[in-house]
Amino acid sequence: MRLVGVRDVSKDFANGVRALEGTSLDIEAGEFLSVLGPSGCGKSTLLRLIAGLAQPTSGTIEWPSGRPDLGFVFQEPTLMPWTTALANVALPLKLAGVARSEREARAAEALGHVGLAGFERSYPRELSGGMKMRVSIARALVTEPKLLLMDEPFAALDEITRRRLNTDLLDLWQRTRFTAVFVTHSVFESVFLSQRIAVMSARPGRVLSELAIPAAYPRTEAFGTSAEYAALCRLTSAQLSEALAA
Questions:
Q1: What is the pLDDT of residues 187-236, one digit of tens each?
Q2: What are the tens digits of pLDDT across the range 138-189?
Q3: What is the DSSP code (8-state) at residue 88?
Q4: How far is CA 234 from the centre of its chain?
Q5: Which residues pair with 4 in a beta bridge?
Q6: Nearest partner of 116 among 92, 159, 161, 85, judged by Cα
Q7: Cα–Cα distance between 244 and 246 in angstroms, integer?
Q8: Which domain, by its residues, includes 139?
Q9: What contacts 238, CB < 8 A, 6 or more positions away?
Q10: CA max distance for the chain
Q11: Beta-strand runs (E) in 79-203
Q12: Are 10 and 117 found together in one domain?
């Protein structure tokens, strides 16, 4: 079932830059979709338009069954440094008027889901970069959104931490089956995570091709070193090269 449809969307900024031009994309409920493209191609702009954080210059964002609750994970963790991991995760619930006892219980549960049980009272300065991003993901998921938008959340992390978080993110997605839209410029990350990849052109960005990733879940470290994974990465890389040349 289609959750959201992007229809012939263009986006111009006040400085004259056209970030997106005539791009269209369908997102199915419950799927894991990656949006792949070079830096500056409008991937983040597309995500912000879907989130309602900006409006398209032309075209439409359609919600056939109504706009669902959504969560957004930014490139940086954007945590409040003066308060604990628990309070950071509980913030959306506090803003929604949820009682303190309930929001703290739900925030603690969300931290447990991302592997941070026992770190509820830790402050951001006491956490590693990967742990901060886990807190950010927990905060996005604490309201139990139907749609999770992720804007290159692991790009600044070291490779070992990034791989671990990719695996943990897939575990979360398989357990709760939210719809995930994951922006990345990494071929390897997009293939490991996704059921489907939308490949974007250079700016002004538009979706030029879509690629199904038929590998079965769960996807473990063994999948990341398999011949199947390598072949899918080569295919995706070729699609990206074609998009850049278009």
A1: 999 999 999 999 999 899 999 999 999 999 999 889 999 999 999 999 99
A2: 999 999 999 999 999 998 888 888 888 899 899 999 988 899 999 999 999 9
A3: H
A4: 23
A5: 27
A6: 85
A7: 6
A8: 76-145
A9: none
A10: 55
A11: 147-151, 179-184, 196-200
A12: no
Query: In one letter, which amino acid is 210?
Result: E
Residue 86: CB atoms within 10 A of its CB come to 20
Reported in sequence order, the residue ranges of 117-220 that DSSP labels E, i.e. its strands, are 147-151, 179-184, 196-200, 207-212
| C-alpha gyration radius of the chain | 18
Which residues neighbour 92 within 8 Å (Cβ) at sequence distance 6 or greater? Answer: 139, 142, 143
Site of tokens 């072949």? 231
Q: How far is CA 154 from CA 126, 182, 185, 240, in A?
A: 19, 10, 11, 20
The whole-angstrom separation of Cα 31 and Cα 178 is 8
Query: Is the four-CA dihedral 128, 134, 140, 144 of positive or negative sign?
Result: negative
DSSP state of 1: -
User: Encoding tokens for residue 115?
Assistant: 């592997």
How many independent structural domains does the chain possess? 2
Choose among 117, 118, 87: nearest CA to 100: 87
Question: What are phi and psi for residue 17, nearest 5 degrees?
Answer: -75, 130
Nearest 10 degrees: CA dihedral of 40, 43, 47, 53?
20
My answer on whether 119 and 231 are in the same domain is: no
Distances in Å between the Cα of 3 and the Cα atoms of 6, 20, 68, 219, 231 are 10, 21, 9, 25, 30
19, pLDDT greater than 90: yes
Classify burial at 96, counting beta carbons within 10 Å of its beta carbon; exposed 0-12, middle 13-18, buried 19 or more: exposed
The answer on 237 and 165 residing in a single domain is yes
- Residue 140, CA distances (Å) to 125, 154, 237 in order: 20, 15, 30
* Residue 90 shares a structural domain with residue 199: no
